[in-house]
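Lecture notes, part 5. Sequence design as translation. It can be helpful to think of inverse folding as translation between two languages: the language of shapes and the language of residues. The source text, in structure tokens, appears below.
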């Protein structure tokens, strides 16, 4: 089952690279990466699920991976419109959207921006991987309020990170893994991050990190699985809180022994794939 790598054009003319693997009549899965990440980082899921009979689609968001990197559009609302172009142009139906980190925010924005029943009928289920409803801490919150939501950054820290991206990227990405990640794996992941410019990723980070999705979560009406990590950069409490806000949502937290980092899908693909497949086949 060799992946088919081709591209589509968004409504504003940007070329997005995408891949489809697995039998054409298989249950549809669409994976969305996080901030600065490339679709190739889902390769351990692509291989597993396509061999298990699923039809797997991945794509590089604008500015990411092998897609075009224009000088505009680095905001979550535009990324949600791009996602809608992917869903409609590929005519994905009865699809499970699996979003990691910022990919969850893109999916939440899509759900919010496209309430038409015909659009939403395309989605059968959601899997949200390790993204809090809000990343930026309100300066007026107590420590307990911020901890409940896993709001780990102050607005000032977000702008500081964006202003010093070249220096801070490597330690930031390393902190998304457990210490057991191999140097080869880390360097490869970092190389995928470097496919996006620091300037565009800084613009996107500010827009993404300052978003608040708490009012969207209760309006999600399809079966949902929320995944957290015990040793993630996002403390699990806020991710588990997300699950309490989505009607009927299930949740699972990968333990430290299960390498429950922000990249559990990379560090422990066997456990990650098992948990997701169990949800998909319920």
């Amino acid at each position: 089952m060799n992946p088919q790598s081709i591209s589509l054009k968004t409504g504003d003319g940007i070329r997005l690279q995408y891949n489809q693997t697995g039998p054409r009549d298989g249950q549809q899965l669409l994976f969305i990466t996080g901030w600065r990440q490339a679709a190739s980082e889902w390769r351990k899921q692509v291989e597993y699920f396509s061999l298990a009979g699923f039809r797997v689609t991945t794509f590089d968001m604008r500015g990411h991976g092998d897609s075009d990197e224009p000088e505009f559009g680095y905001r979550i609302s535009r990324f949600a419109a791009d996602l809608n172009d992917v869903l409609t142009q590929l005519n994905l139906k009865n699809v499970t959207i699996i979003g990691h980190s910022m990919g969850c925010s893109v999916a939440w924005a899509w759900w919010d921006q496209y309430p038409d029943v015909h659009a939403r009928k395309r989605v059968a289920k959601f899997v949200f991987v390790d993204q809090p409803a809000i990343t930026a801490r309100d300066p007026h919150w107590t420590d307990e309020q911020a901890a409940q939501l896993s709001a780990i950054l102050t607005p000032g820290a977000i702008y500081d990170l964006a202003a010093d991206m070249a220096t801070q990227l490597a330690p930031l990405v390393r902190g998304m893994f457990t210490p057991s990640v191999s140097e080869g794996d880390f360097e490869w992941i970092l190389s995928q991050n470097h496919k996006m410019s620091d300037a565009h990723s800084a613009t996107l980070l500010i827009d993404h990190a300052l978003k608040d999705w708490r009012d969207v979560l209760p309006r999600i009406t399809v079966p949902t699985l929320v995944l957290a990590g015990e040793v993630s950069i996002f403390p699990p409490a806020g991710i588990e809180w997300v699950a309490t806000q989505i009607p009927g949502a299930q949740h699972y937290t990968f333990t430290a022994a299960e390498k429950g980092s922000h990249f559990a899908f990379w560090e422990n693909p066997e456990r990650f794939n098992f948990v997701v497949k169990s949800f998909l086949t319920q």
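The translated text above is only one of many valid answers, since several sequences can fold into similar shapes. Residues 4-280 form a domain with the Rossmann fold fold (CATH 3.40.50.1820).
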